[in-house]
Write a structure and sequence with these properties.
Rossmann fold, two-stranded antiparallel ribbon, single chain, 7-stranded mixed β-sheet, 231 residues, 26% strand, alpha/beta
């Protein structure tokens, strides 16, 4: 049985609220990833680790013809259903398991926003993404910045271990910290081609919402985002 990586119950509710208006999710990660996506009109899009449906809702609004969201948390999927109102197909599925319910070469674009570093079975997941993406399909990925993790957790930058990170209200998340070489190398090793790499900073709107966190994203790296192509 694979590990469970989803955010359940109180953690899921906390994340759904934070993703709605929090500086890091709503004003840093999401704008950067949607900019990397470019024109999605007419595309079939897969949102892996779709959470409370924020990305799926934006992709539908931007003109994606079909959006499929997958998440292992029933808590988050309930929030996604409320947000989307049937505008996307949602699947409850543990991302540590193969995506057997998705057909070969059935998507033009796949999005994994702040998901990949939680996964144990990453090689399997990358194989599945190559399978379900069409030739020349796009994969967008964001993760915690390796330098940010090193600064926060200390020790060796080259550590390759699971860490616990407090997110408030006595809740924690755990994930793998990876060097830039390891993170990027896993995608290149799986046959993806890197097209663009960005280190997102909060948008100007965040300055009014949370000046302290806005300034933090403009002085130290927080996330890393990639646009990759499936040959």
């Amino acid at each position: 049985m694979r590990a469970e990586t989803a955010y359940h119950d109180a953690l899921g509710e906390h994340f759904a609220a934070r993703a709605t208006g929090g500086t890091y999710n709503a004003y840093t990660d999401r704008p950067a990833m949607l900019e990397l996506a470019g024109d999605v009109r007419g595309l079939d899009v897969l949102d892996l680790g779709c959470g409370a449906g924020h990305y799926a809702a934006e992709l539908v609004k931007l003109g994606a013809v079909r959006v499929v969201g997958v998440d292992g948390s029933e808590t988050l999927l309930r929030a996604a259903q409320q947000r989307l109102g049937g505008r996307a197909a949602l699947h409850h599925h543990n991302l540590e398991e193969p995506l057997a319910f998705l057909a070969d070469q059935s998507f033009d674009l796949a999005v994994m926003a702040l998901v990949y570093h939680h996964i144990d079975a990453r090689a399997q997941l990358l194989d599945e993404l190559r399978r379900v993406l069409r030739p020349d399909g796009t994969l967008l990925v964001s993760t915690t910045h390796p330098t940010s993790d090193w600064t926060y957790f200390g020790g060796s930058y080259f550590a390759d271990d699971r860490v616990e990170f407090p997110v408030g209200d006595g809740l924690t998340i755990n994930y793998w910290r990876m060097t830039l070489q390891k993170f990027l190398g896993e995608f290149l090793g799986a046959g993806f081609v890197l097209e663009e790499l960005v280190e997102p900073r909060a948008t100007e709107e965040a300055r009014l919402v949370d000046p302290r966190r806005y300034d933090r994203t403009h002085t130290a790296p927080t996330f890393l985002a990639l646009r990759l192509r499936r040959p």
